[in-house]
Amino acid sequence: MLWNWTCSLHLPEGIVYLRGRMKIHLRAITLILFLMAAAGTAAANTVTLTIENGGSNANGGVYVGPYNFTSGGQSLQLVCDAFEYDVYPPETWTATTGTIGSTGTGLFGSLNSTQYLEVAYLTEMLFRTSNATTIAEIQWAIWDIFDPSLNYGANDPYGQISSSEQMAIQNLVDTAEANYMSGNYSNLVVYTPTSWSPQDSEPQEYIGIVPEPASLLLLGAGLSSLVALRRRLSN
Predict the structure, then answer these.
(1) N or C: lower Cβ tally within 10 Å for the chain?
(2) 58-86 confidence digits (pLDDT tens)
């Protein structure tokens, strides 16, 4: 039997002290890494995403993520922000990236809109917990913000959201509405699709933590080794 996947993916039933000139070198290296990281983030405005699977967490007849992706050889965990579009791994998308709170545009309008800021508040909450039930309720709350017809899970097309879960989802939506202005969401990136394969699939938008570029990690390791070498030579 074959099962559908949606964005909702459907289910079958030590401290080192440095002194003197070394401290100056470390500050310079830190500044270089910061500038290169900023440049890398600004330049990375188009990416290719391939969904590998929906993770292992499920609720209400669907996978609730975070979903597992690969992009440019890196593994990513992303949160889906829309319920209605079907997803069938291993679909691939070309997507533009934008930061929530910026002047960019996502699938649902301005990334500075109240809806995106509320979703950002919930997404940060989701990434801070490992509790499967809480993750599921937050994911349904995110879907409800962009699709109020879900009515806090009461209109789950699979009819599996309990009344207590619906109340928890509604409370999360209310919490986001009351507190979204208190957050700083510059660490969240939105992946908005521009093309996808296979063509008969549907686009989907995802949100995740800004990834650490692999090249910068390698550079950081190399510079750290240089610092250690200079320290040994100075002793």
Answers:
(1) N
(2) 999 999 989 999 998 999 999 999 998 87
Cα–Cα distance between 156 and 188 in angstroms, integer? 27
Q: At what angle do helices 214-234 and 21-43 cross, to 10 degrees?
A: 170
The model's confidence at residue 30, banded by pLDDT at 50, 70 and 90, is very low
Confidence of residue 8 (pLDDT cuts 50, 70, 90): low
Choose among 4, 1, 6: nearest CA to 203: 6
| Cα distances (angstroms) measured from residue 48 to each of 68, 97, 99, 122, 234 | 14, 10, 17, 25, 46
**How far from 76 is each of 23, 36, 149, 210, CA to CA, in Å?**
35, 21, 29, 10
Q: Kindly list the distances between the CA atom of residue 156 and the CA atoms of 4, 127, 144, 169, in Å, as whole numbers in the listed order.
A: 15, 23, 10, 12
Amino acid (one-letter) located at 122: L
Q: Cβ(186)–Cβ(99) under 8 Å? A: yes
At 148, list the tokens: 């109020």
pTM score: 0.76
